[in-house]
Each structure stands twice: as structure tokens, then as C-alpha cells.
Amino acid sequence: MPARASLASVSPPTKPAGPGRGVVALAAPDPRALLRWYDRHRRELPWRAPPGVRQDPYKVFLSEIMLQQTTVVTVQPYYAAFLARWPSVTALAAARLEEVLSAWAGLGYYARARNLHACARAVAGEHGGRFPDSVEGLLALPGVGPYTAAAIASIAHERRAAPVDGNWERVVARLFAVEEALPKARKQLRALAETLLPAARFGDFAQAMMDLGATVCTPRKPACILCPWRENCAAQAAGNPEAYPVKAAKAARPTRRGVAFLAVRADGAVLLRTRPEKGLLGSMTEVPSTPWQEDETADPARHAPLKAQWQALNAGVSHVFSHFALELAVWRARLPAGTPAPAGHRWVKPAGFPAEAFPSVMVKVLEYLE
Ligand code: SF4
To answer: How far apart are CA 18 and CA 319, in angstroms?
Structure first.
């Protein structure tokens, strides 16, 4: 079994592997081998330019923001709809935030939609509608972190940059059999990833790494036999690629509970409000509810938005957020037409729902309208 590599023991890709690569002498992975593989096996994706064509930064930006925490299959219809509605960064900048949130509904992690919009406004307002072409310039944009900056810089501007996503991390952790556990290992994985970069074709290399991780070096049962780096991979030489990346044990996800108040007027209108701009589901539309907390809320009725005959329904709604699970009971009340909305609330008829930015959890609550 080969010794595990540490960063200090890894040779740059253009030199032969140093002694620290272990008992089995493994040559350093050659980025050109991966680029050759990519030329034959690249995935066709809607946001990807044809071979040899420089990608539009707006398309890279839009797709990369959408793809964070979300699968390619889920993203595709959203990407197509956004591009059809807002074909340029200036068009997106001119949209109202509520429209963008509404179009985003169902993709989750709504902070991304707010960042997308804020960033489009900065590009349109401060950069004449052109994305900066350096990692540093991109990082200065609101909501653009190291990953997105490196993705746009490499894929759209051919800058030497490594957009290290989960696919990159997995491939690198296996190539070098990195023993340090995620998330602590992230710094080491990033530094190792930099050693793999080619001398040119940075955009293709970035996408090749993503494709290798998505189609060959998969989380389970990686197809090492098809991998252009199988002769250079410490984890495959050791026979245990699935052991990498090592992950720290996850803390249990707590459960929060609350009561959603579904107030329906005789004319069909439903009582809604907008969540605060900052924080979870910021600026999204919701049915009023008690606070969401781990302890049961004592006397939920005192949080009801208005006085009514509230009926506790037998069913409720479950939803899982990244940091907690939510169990919402649903209380429903019928009110006479003409009942005024309390402060901070509004009545909206179902015909007006498409214009509202409902998060998935609220779509589930609204299923109890009838
Ligand atoms: S040889 Fe296997 S484990 Fe190693 S990088 Fe390739 S697919 Fe991943």
C-alpha cells in the first residue's frame, strides 16, 4: 500500500514524483492526459461553449451560481428560463429582485438568487455590463466567492485559476490520498489542485476536472479503468478510492417546529407577508407563522396574525434545510370577504401566486388551502 502523500511531499506535475509519493512510485498526474480525455469525453451542457469557442462570462456566472448545491438535471430548465427571460447581465440587472426570486423559486438556497441579482447590478452599473477578467476583479463583486471567481476567470477569460468544487476535491483527495478530513482539508486540497494546472487551456482543464469527477471519479464506484490518471492515483493504487475524500463526522441536524397560519378569506385571498431581507429565505413570500424553534412554542395562538376560529389540521409539512429540519403544523381559518390585512401582511388571491416568490416549504403549506 503506498504511503499517503502530504502537500510537502507532492511534486509539481511537470516533474517526476518525489520520494514522498510512497512505496509505489507514482508519476505525477499529467494535465495534458486529462485534456486529451476531455477532448474525447466532454459533456454537452447547455451553458458550455463548443470546443475552441470562448464562453460568455454571463452564462458561466449564471450556471455556476445555479449549480452550487444543485444538480445539473435540476438546473437545466431554470438556466434555460433565466436566459430566455434575461439574456444578458444588463437585462438581469434591470429586473426587480422579486421577479428574480420568483423565477428562482424551487432551486433553494435563495441567498444565491439575491447575490446573482446584486452582482448583475454591480456588473451593469460599475463595469459597463462587462465582467472583470481577473480573479481579483471578480472577487470584488457582491456575492462572488473564490469558486465562482475562479470559474469565470478560467472558463470565460482563460486565466490560470482553479475553481475547486466538490468534484475537484474528490479527484485531488484520491490522486494524492489525502488523509486530512474535510472540511479542514480544503486548504490542502486547493494547494494540491494548483499543482495540477496545465500551462494553457485553463478553461478546458477546469471543466475537465468537473467532468472527470461527475462521470468517472464518482463518489461511489469510481470507474478507474476509464480514468486518464489511473497510473498516477495513490488511492486507486491502494485499492480504496472510495475512502477519499475523508470526511469529518457530521453533527446531527436539529429539528425546529412551528405553526403556519393559513388564513383564507371568502373571496379566496390568502394572508401572506414578506420575510425580512436578511437571513434564511430573505425577501421570500410566506404564510405567517410562529417562530421556528427547537422547543415547542407555548400558546401558538398568540402568534396568529388575526383573531379567527383557527382549526388545527391533522397533517403538517416537513422540510429539510441545510442546517435544520422543519416540522410545521398548519392551522387554517376562514374569514369574511373584506377582512382587512394586519400591518405587514397582504391578501393575495391564487391568481396572483405566480408573481410571489414562494420557497418550497411554503408551496407545501399552500397545499392545505382546500
Ligand atoms: S484512478 Fe480512480 S480514484 Fe483515481 S482519480 Fe481516477 S477515477 Fe478517481
So the answer is: 50
Residues 225 and 136 in one domain: yes
Residue range 337-353, pLDDT digits in tens = 999 999 999 999 999 99
Domain CATH for 329: 3.90.79.10
Residue 46's domain is classified under what CATH number?
1.10.340.30
pLDDT of residue 296: 79
Q: What is the pLDDT of residue 364?
A: 94
* Amino acid 33: pLDDT: 97
Q: Tell whether omega for the bond before 46 is within 30 degrees of 0, i.e. cis.
A: no
Report helix, strand or coil for 51: coil
Which residue from 217, 232, 244 has its CB within 8 A of the most atoms of ligand 1, so it is best to mutate?
A: 217
- The structure's pTM equals 0.73
Neighbour tally for 345: CB within 10 Å: 17
Residue 286 annotated among the catalytic residues of the structure: no
Residue to mutate (ligand 1; options 175, 231, 232; most atoms within 8 A of CB): 175
Domain termination residue (choose one: 243, 274, 298): 243
Q: Which residue, judged by its Cα, is nearest atom 4 of ligand 1? A: 233
Parts of the chain with a pLDDT under 70: 1-24
Ligand 1 pocket member 26 (CB < 6 A)? no
- Residue 111 has what pLDDT? 85
Pick the atom of ligand 1 nearest to 171's CA. 5
Are 162 and 197 in contact, with CB atoms under 8 Å apart?
yes
Name which residue sits closest to atom 1 of ligand 1, judged by CA.
Answer: 230
Q: How far apart are CA 61 and CA 157, in angstroms?
A: 12
Residue 109 is predicted with a pLDDT of: 80
